[in-house]
Design brief:
PH-domain like; cell adhesion; 7-stranded antiparallel sheet; single chain; 23% strand; Ubiquitin-like (UB roll); 19 helices; PH-like_dom_sf; PH_domain; FERM_2; integrin binding; alpha+beta
Length: 679
């Protein structure tokens, strides 16, 4: 019996639909409620009416019209704004989701549809045993990138059955609190640092998690490359505008999956969004290293990032090494170039080499009170708009973060012809080892755009010293920095990899090795060369990497990817305030680049280190940024929501606060403060 007070003048009827699997029980319930009833009380009243004995702890109320969860159970209906016309759904918070990993494998697992995406991705990474979940996010493929695939599926006579790895029985997937993961710093190694397989002493750990030994191998090993026909069917960006489409679908990390229109059993892409791979360690990061390697591999095969023919052959050789699986260890430690600010791949390689050789790294203390300088004869190349470019030899002096050049060595005591400040400039390698061309392209910010200057070096050693100095100067660092000499060493080692020589013995019979060269290079090169020619050239390059282990080959591949000029750039089509045409904005880990959409040439670069503040005018969807020296820019984003760019900027600044002495818990509140905005 109900009391008469329950049906007072302030009560009203509320329709709630229950998402359950019992066909014999109704799904719609009409409850009489009052505005001062709290959400928890409403859920209790609803469960009492349903009369189904089951665990309702994972259920919560979803408000369809407002696209939001009612998770604050102590709030009243009045405070939430719920009235009689509200359509509420009582549904589970954890639902099945299909995720396409960078290695093109699909996993199916339960994910929280009510948590912010940042938290949901953290839980996913615990299931997959991927450390540093803050570098990862979820991407929804745009319609344009799916058109080609849909067209192919329509023409296909046989239905395509996708092999899906089901991880739905995980403790995190079930909505329970996850374990700290399999990567605690105090434990023994989880993975063999040579092969990437789970270490025998920790195999038993996987029996209690969805990552059984078999499942783990799916995530840690690369599988045979796809055929050229399959590659041709995949979306390949042909222009900067096409590349911008690839980054349009990043989900908002500050909102839940349900709030962003993601439904149960939808498919999303799990990708590394931020290109700052922190604290890579082969002992604990076999899955993470393999997935980064796969993301890099597909970016190169699908030409999402440009590289020279010489570089493409190095990438092909490293893939071939993985394919051939020569597990002999290197007798010498090898390194090569990487221009990332925090070279975690180099640290991982060093860690790997120490593990394999049983040695210890030597700490070298440098005298940082005396800033070194470079002085040498180089050639200066200046492109001319209406005439041929001029090439002249000068005496160059590099000190601090500036380059000065003089007519000759004797006049170096006087005033220079010109002094170039490289802080904040773009440094691009212009190298062809086979042709003995060692150039450095400098794009130096000036008032009306970028001043383009080329430096030509005589040999590899000179190039390595000057290139390393330019890279550090662009970041505001001098040659006194402890990273200078390792940078020189890496550049020299990378050049050594490029400098292969024809060995008739090694390539006399490319068919003797079971290898399809078309699987290791982008379609552009399969059209340019015949299969036998490609195989011979790949095997030439392969001689320099043939002694690498599987994990080392992947780490080298990642490092070579990081050394490409376009590495880490995410593109968006924008309209700058006051401009009458569209431009492309490149977002990187340490800078923003304005790029001419027609030519692809950089116009201006702004460094995050010079940024004072940034905000978004949500009414007109405009991003405004203030830099040092009273530089202001503002733009609207045309190829994606402006929130995506806002989150990218805040996310990179958040990642720059990480340090190795921290534990692996993240300041989630700080992330949302930097990325969430005040919408």
């Amino acid at each position: 019996m109900s009391s008469s007070n329950e049906y007072g003048s302030h009560s009203w009827e509320l329709l709630v639909t229950v998402d359950h699997q019992h066909e014999e029980v109704q799904k719609e319930f009409l409850l009489r409620v009052t505005g001062d009833l709290h959400v928890g009380g409403l859920m209790l009243k609803l469960v009492e009416q349903i009369k189904i004995p089951q665990d309702w702890s994972d259920y919560a109320l979803w408000w369809e019209q407002k696209k939001c969860w009612l998770l604050k159970t102590h709030w009243t209906l009045d405070k939430c704004g719920v009235q009689a016309d509200a359509k509420l759904f009582f549904t589970t918070q954890h639902k099945m989701l299909r995720l396409r990993l960078p290695n093109m494998k699909t996993v199916r697992l339960k994910v929280s549809f009510s948590s912010m995406v940042f938290r949901a991705v953290s839980d996913i990474c615990k299931i997959l045993n991927i450390r540093r979940s803050e570098e990862v996010s979820l991407l929804k493929q745009s319609e344009d990138t799916l058109k080609k695939k849909k067209k192919k599926d329509k023409n296909s006579k046989e239905p395509v059955t996708e092999d899906i790895l089901n991880l739905c029985n995980s403790p995190v997937s079930s909505g329970l609190s996850g374990s700290p993961g399999l990567y605690s710093k105090t434990m023994t190694p989880v993975y063999d640092p040579i092969s990437g397989t789970p270490a025998s002493s920790t195999i038993t750990w996987f029996s209690d998690s969805p990552l059984t030994e078999q499942n783990c191998s799916v995530l840690t090993f690369s599988h045979p490359s796809c055929s050229p026909e399959t590659l041709a069917e995949m979306y390949q960006p042909r222009s900067l505008a096409d590349k911008a489409k690839l980054n349009a679908g990043w989900l908002d990390s500050s909102r839940s999956l349900m709030e962003q229109g993601i439904l149960e059993d939808d498919q999303l892409l799990l990708r590394f969004k931020y290109y700052t791979f922190f604290d890579l360690n082969p002992k604990y990061d076999a899955v993470r290293i393999n997935q980064i390697y796969e993301q890099a591999r597909w970016a190169i095969l699908l030409e999402e990032i440009d590289c020279t023919e010489e570089e493409m052959l190095i990438f092909a050789a490293l893939q071939a090494q993985y394919h051939v699986s020569k597990l002999s260890l290197s007798s010498e430690a090898q390194d090569f170039t990487c221009e990332s600010e925090v070279d975690e791949v180099e640290a991982a390689l060093s860690n790997l080499e120490v593990t394999l050789e049983g040695g210890n790294t030597n700490n070298i203390l440098e005298d940082i009170t005396d800033i070194p300088k470079l002085a040498d004869n180089l050639r200066l190349v200046r492109p001319r708009r209406l005439s041929l470019k001029t090439i002249k030899p000068y005496w160059f002096v590099f000190k601090d973060t500036s380059v000065s050049y003089f007519k000759n060595k004797e006049s170096a005591q006087g005033e220079p012809i010109e002094k170039l400040n490289l802080k904040g400039c773009e440094v691009v390698p212009d190298v062809n080892v086979a042709a003995k061309k060692f150039g450095i392209k400098l794009l130096i910010p000036v008032a009306d755009g970028m001043n383009e200057v080329y430096l030509r070096c005589e040999n590899e050693n000179q190039y390595a010293r000057w290139m390393a100095a330019c890279v550090l100067a662009s970041k505001g660092k001098t040659m006194a920095d402890s990273s200078y000499h390792p940078e020189v060493h890496k550049i020299l080692s990378f050049l050594k990899m490029k400098n292969w020589t024809m060995s008739p013995q090694a390539v006399s019979d490319p068919e003797s090795i079971d290898m399809k060269p078309e699987c290791f290079v982008s379609p552009r090169y399969t059209k340019k060369y015949k299969s036998k020619q490609l195989a011979a050239r790949i095997l030439e390059a392969h001689q320099n990497v043939s002694q690498m282990t599987l994990v080392e080959a992947k780490l080298r591949f990642i490092q070579a990817w990081q050394s490409l000029p376009e590495f880490g750039l995410s593109y968006y089509i924008v309209r700058f305030k006051g401009s009458k045409k569209d431009d492309v904005l490149g977002v990187s880990y340490n800078r923003l680049i304005r790029i001419d959409m027609a030519t692809g040439d950089p116009i201006t670069t702004w460094r995050f280190s010079n940024m004072k503040q940034w905000n978004v005018n949500w009414e007109i969807r405009q991003v405004a940024i203030e830099f040092d020296q009273n530089v202001f820019i503002a733009f609207t984003c045309l190829s994606a929501d402006c929130k995506i760019i806002h989150e990218y900027i805040g996310g990179y600044i958040f990642l720059s606060t990480r340090s190795k002495d921290q534990n692996e818990t993240l300041d989630e509140d700080l992330f949302h403060k930097l990325t969430g905005g005040q919408e």
